[in-house]
């Protein structure tokens, strides 16, 4: 009896790659192994690769295809288009063997009987070398959606066979070392999920830019998911923390609304596809609610645990039954095999006019001539090292993308085709710029920077930049804790991979300024905002929230949670807001709530604001957000710190107020620190140590107030010196008292990285930790290790001298 040329997913497993291709083997594995765990996978069947081989054999295609592909110029690929066209013509003109077509019809009928109706299916190509941990083949072959009826299914399978010879698939096989005759094709036929009536998207079980492993990133759009792959729209994005997801906590770290400009649906009578303008209400709505995000993330986690590796997953929500489904899962092929022990840091050292911005892919900087192309047909215009600027890309662009120093697109998100290919090639991309092709002219010299967080920027001209290589293999860690100073959640995953023992200072005001932008009191008392422009901005930013303060709490908690998750379970010390009144006034709506002060540096700032009627309600929002992070989201590695606390009585007031707002010191392990930056903190350190769990020395303010020097004054810059004996005496004194009272003490500032002598002084005094800005961390650690080594040698020499003296006596 002949082996059947089709098999249902229920009988296919991950070991069947040679028989059913990587994609279908994975689908079978999902269907068989994960449905019992609650993961919903639509049913279907796949054609055996023997069906494809029989197709080639009966039509005598092996030799002519081999001869055709042998003539391909694999140096310049100048004849790739004509070679691909000829190969596809050969395969397209050849009929499917009767036995193969008959098996496909029978399998489709059985699927229809199982579902109780004639079903619409998706027919997707699956190569025998596809979806491997080392090569994804993503987007290289064709898929056909909303296919209904036996004859149309057979025809779609035939077209899948043809797609093995697309230009991009031919070149991809050569680039990845796969011999053409050794790659066979299977077609997967799967019941359609009616996401055209709802939403769909992709998910990664790691962060796709940095490779951070402990987060699930979900992207979604309205309608069919082709818009994500093609980069046609900017999707919604959600991030979920795996550790607290397993604990049953509110693990959603981030929800970011995408513009979702288009919605892809089926054409009239189900024929073809239409890409329609998304209605305004849907553009301003997230495609998934919190429970759906959590459910989908839990499925992704189970899939990753089952496969034992990071995964790239496709999901869809059915608009008829309202259920979520997993429709594909493949190994993530970029960061899963990267060596994360060596980093390169890039920093612009000159400035230029910003032309446009979008979503950064990669972390480097590139410059060169912009080449504006409308389609792959213009590929010959792109020269090696130029920057490709276009509306969007799809797999047809793949053969030319290696030539580009960077890719800039108007459309697309972090999981669009341009972004995926850029990561795989190790290239830079800025996607979703909206107006790049309008702002950038063909032949213009531009600089593409992806070194400024998740926002990529394109500047006019060729700017200068620096590169710093960080080899973690060569770095020795000190005994004293090296920690980081952070405020930007967009960079948290990248910096978490640096050598560190946590975050010694998370600046809340940076997050308020960059992630929120609105004065908290303007949200609490919106009726008092006098400026029309400010009111309009607040209405726009808070659209979709039940009330305006909820916007502040949501954004602040998500930003802090992202950083806390990146470093979990290491401590993350969050300093409550420390804007000066003039800085607060710059926030939207801020001028209506801030006093005008002669010297804001020593004015209405820090702890004094928190219990004052002018800001008390704003501080309450900060506390609610931190309580959500620690308790609801489960990130109890967050510790809190109070800045610029002038008196012990003020410290007690703030601690009592925090307890009133749900942040009681000691409950659920909550520790509250105080900045040691006012001389009274040092002089009364014993009293402060009784009410706080530790100190962090703010050397800038302490130097300013010890020497009476305005740190912002250009006239007194030479007088500002943290190595001044008076300042050093202050620092030594507070460290000594902290040790005597059994509380921790650290220092955050640039000094220990710039000055080895200052680092040595701190370590000699026995400081517990030193916190650095990321760009100073490696140098700072080196200075710490050197200081500890010198201290050890001095100590050993001292002990030896004492022993010699004892013997002499």
Provide a short characterization of the protein structure:
The chain contains 30 helices and 30 strands. The chain has 809 residues and is of the alpha/beta class.
Give an overview of the whole structure:
The structure is a single chain. This protein has 809 residues and is α/β, with parallel strands linked by helices. It has 4 domains: 6-192, ATP-grasp fold, A domain (Dna Ligase, domain 1); 196-330, D-amino Acid Aminotransferase, Chain A, domain 1, CATH 3.30.470; 342-470, Glucose Oxidase, domain 1 (3-Layer(bba) Sandwich), CATH 3.50.30; 475-795, TIM Barrel (Alpha-Beta Barrel), CATH 3.20.20.60. The chain contains 30 helices and 30 strands. An 8-stranded parallel β-barrel has the order 23-24-25-26-27-28-29-30, surrounded by 7 helices. Strands 15-19-18-17-16-20-21 form a 7-stranded mixed barrel. A 6-stranded antiparallel sheet has the order 9-8-7-6-12-13. α4 (80-93) packs antiparallel against α6 (150-162). The radius of gyration is 30 Å and the shape is elongated. Residues 130-137 have low confidence and may be disordered.
Supply the key terms.
alpha/beta, elongated, 21% strand, D-amino Acid Aminotransferase, Chain A, domain 1, 30 helices, 7-stranded mixed barrel, 4 domains, 8-stranded parallel beta barrel, Dna Ligase, domain 1
